[in-house]
Each structure stands twice: as C-alpha cells, then as structure tokens.
C-alpha cells in the first residue's frame, strides 16, 4: 500500500504528483493491469502451433527481404481505406 502524507505548505497538486510517482514506482498499477485480463497458460499444442506460425512469418519476411519487396509487405498491413484495413 502506498502512503503519502501532506507536508507543511505543500499544495494538493504536488501531493497528488508525489503520490502518482510513488504508485508508478511501486508497480501496483502494472500488477493490477496484468491481473485484469488474465490469460490461461497455453497447452503444448497451442505453444507448438504458435511457434510454427511465428517461424512461417519469419521465413516469409526473410524471403520478401531477399527479393526486395519487404517494404511493400510491411506497408500493406498499415494502409487503410475509409478506416478499414485493405485486403
């Protein structure tokens, strides 16, 4: 628990600033945010499938880099048409 006491002549703004700084340094917010959307651990099959997917993406990027089309591949993911991603 983070505790901050008001010093003599200290303004409310500086008290709040000091409190916020201590909360950030203590890591309370980070722990709370991590536990908010707790994900269950993946089983071995899911871990393997994810590793295979990452490997395929890595190979595709390497291939595109070799043939000189990596810029087109990366930019296509972020271009939008009327707020929707291009397909």
From TrEMBL:
UniProt keyword list: Ribonucleoprotein, Ribosomal protein
Record protein name field: Small ribosomal subunit protein bS21
One GO term of the biological process aspect: translation
Lineage: Bacteria, Candidatus Kerfeldiibacteriota
Organism per entry: Candidatus Kerfeldbacteria bacterium CG_4_10_14_0_8_um_filter_42_10
Family to which this protein belongs: Belongs to the bacterial ribosomal protein bS21 family.
GO CC annotation, single: ribonucleoprotein complex
Compositionally biased spans, kind Basic and acidic residues: 37-54
Gene: rpsU
Top-level taxon in the UniProt lineage: Bacteria
Region (Disordered): 34-54
GO MF term set: structural constituent of ribosome
């Amino acid at each position: 628990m983070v505790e901050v006491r008001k010093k003599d002549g200290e303004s409310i703004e500086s008290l709040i600033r000091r409190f916020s700084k201590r909360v950030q340094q203590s890591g309370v917010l980070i722990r709370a945010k991590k536990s908010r959307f707790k994900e269950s651990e993946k089983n071995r099959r899911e871990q393997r499938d994810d590793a295979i997917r990452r490997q395929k993406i890595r190979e595709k990027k390497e291939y595109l880099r070799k043939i000189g089309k990596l810029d087109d591949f990366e930019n296509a993911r972020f271009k939008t048409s009327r707020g929707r991603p291009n397909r």
